[in-house]
Each structure stands twice: as structure tokens, then as C-alpha cells.
From TrEMBL:
This is Probable succinyl-diaminopimelate desuccinylase. The keyword Zinc applies. The lineage of its organism: Bacteria, Bacillati, Bacillota, Bacilli, Bacillales. Residues 182-291 form the Peptidase M20 dimerisation domain. Pfam families: M20_dimer, Peptidase_M20. Keywords: Cobalt, Hydrolase, Metal-binding, Zinc. It comes from Cohnella hashimotonis.
Amino acid sequence: MVVPIVDREEIWRVLRDLVAIPSVNPAFPGGTGEAEVAAYVRNYLESNRIRCIEQPVSEGRSNVIGMLPGTRAGRTLLLEAHMDTVQTTGMTIEPFGAKTASGRLYGRGACDTKASLAAMLVVLGTFARSGRKPTIGVHLAAVVDEEYRYAGVARLAQAIEAGELRYEAAIVGEPTGLSRVVAHKGCVRFRIEARGVAGHSSDPSKGVNAIEQAMEIVRYLREVIEPGYEALRHPLVGPPTHCIAQIEGGDAPNTIPGACTLTIDRRTVPGEEPLGVWKRMKTDLERFARETPGLALAVHEPFIIDYAMEIRTDESVVGRLAQAVNLVKRGTAEHGAAYGTDASKLARVGVPSIVFGPGDIRQAHTDDEWVELAEVCAAADALAALIANYGNEEGEEETA
Ligand SMILES: [Zn+2]
């Protein structure tokens, strides 16, 4: 079908509206939740006569899914974007001012990821108003809680796994500068506790200093574990990494510390199972403790795990999206990313997923977050072309 023209003014208006509505994740300072944005999304879709369902996730927090039917039953593309943002602490602009200047729109969430959400919404609205159905059906899932615990996409993935919803591919909206993230890392985060023996610090020989034990662990991780990462290097996302992100230890200035806890953020590459990575590290650390006189430690269960993701480059959505983007911007590419997204949770339930959207990831979570309006429009044009052409090629002529 002919690619419908997406109205720039409408994209700007919807993006301004979305940014002006606070939707800070409730896990963060000043967190208001996503309810008001969800109501806006629902109202936009319904006023364009697009059927909507809500997926309750937790008290007062629901995903909204808009459903644009296609002419070919059983084929559906998923567009997914999160509605929550990080906190506004320390911002140097009005977080919800939604001011525009020099072609940019400023505010919390402008780039991450309300720009993607606005582009997706207006594309769906445009198709619905055009009165012509695309070959492929399209669902837009606006989800909660991407910035903290991924509860929104987890609920969506559950419905997919249960067979209530079926998608042949997904585009996950995040600021990629219109490039396509086809692989990204996962993570496993856990704590390692060095266990010493507390005592009066006037005679350090009478105790076991847990902070000094923790130093041994840090050294072991750097000198023995880290060099093994290179062999696991992935062509798109690079090698695994770990970061000792937090350290806590000691009770008082005159006491030999009896405990010291390290928090590790280990980033995984596609092919690594986060829980398996944790188990291996636990085994290695326990062996190290047995071989090191005086060292006692405990490796705690992970408190966060997230999966890495990778889409096979011969999945048809990869080429289709590249083609659609090439119509609006030259020089974009497929690449890997070190950060995590909702895409890995969709990939885990069998939906080939690509991360794509307007804006630069370097602008996400910043003190003066902004997005280039022209790029939001280009993303919308690319999504419109993707949908209009999806399933229209050889032997797949429209049936209605
Ligand atoms: Zn995001």
C-alpha cells in the first residue's frame, strides 16, 4: 500500500503532551507512576478508533495495547515503548516544560523514550484515519516499569508465552539515532560478603579485617576472572565486563571490620545464561577462599538478572526495517549495545526483536534531556514505510 503521510505538527503536539505529563518510575525520587500517560495513550488511540486493551501490572499501573488490524489474519507486528522515565533530580531545565528551541524538544523522557512512543502513536493514528488497512496487523504496547524492574514487559511476555498474543517480530522503541540495535548485553547483579572477625582496632592481629579480605577478592576478580572475558567476546557487543559498583564495610573507627560487602554488576553477552555465570563465579570464589588462608566469604543470590539478546540477521524484520529507514536517512547501521532493553524479554518468548528509535542514547537520563524533532518525524516515516510494505512483497498481495 501507499505509505501514508505522517503529520509533523501532530507528532510534535503528541510528544509535547507526553513530555508534559510526569511519569517518573515510582521506584525513583518523586516517582508519580505512569497512570496519566497511560490514560493519554488510551485516549489518543480510542479517539482514532483503535481498539485498546489494558494489562494490569500492579496497583495503579497498567500496560496499554492498541490494536490496528491488518488484512492478513494471524500476522501481527509489535511496536513497544515504555512510558516511565527516570527521576528529575539535578535537571537544569524544566523537566515537564516540554519547551522547544532550535528544532529540539526538551524535558525528562523526551529522548528516552517518549519520542519513540509519540512516533509510534501517530503512525498508528495515521493508518487508522487513512481508512486503509495495512497487510500486517500492528499492535502498539505502551508498557510500564522499563527503568526499574521490567515488570511491564514481563507482563506482556507472559501473555505472549500463554498464547494470548502472537507477534512475528517486535520493534522496541529506545533512542538509537535510527540505527538498529540487533544485539545487546544482559546482566547479573549480586553481592559478595567477606567475613572477618571483629575486634578492638588497637590490636589488629586479634581479629580478621574484612575490608582487607574484600581487597583480596577485588584483586582476584581483576587478575584471575577478568582476563577470561576476552575469550567470550561477542562480535557485536564485545566481551563481558564486571564492575564492582558498591562497597560497604566496617562499623566504627576503632573496630576491626567484621564484614565487608561488594556489589558486582556483571554484564553478560548473548549466549551466556546469567544464572550460570553467577554459579560459575560463586564456585570460583569459593575455591579461591579455600585456597587463601584466613579468607571467608559468602556469595549471595543474584538480586537482578537480565538476559542478553541477539536477533538473527536473516530474520526478515531486520532487512525490512533497514530498507524502511534507508528511505528517510542514509548511513544508519545495525550494531550491538552494552545496555539492556525490553527487547531481550520479548526475544526470550520467541519474538525476534530489534531496538530502534529517534534520539541519542547519550541524551537519555541527562540534566537537559532533549530530542531532535526532525529525527522523531524521520522515525515515524520509517515506521510508516515498514508497516505499509510489510507483507506486500512478492506473492503476498493484499487480500482486501
Ligand atoms: Zn528507555
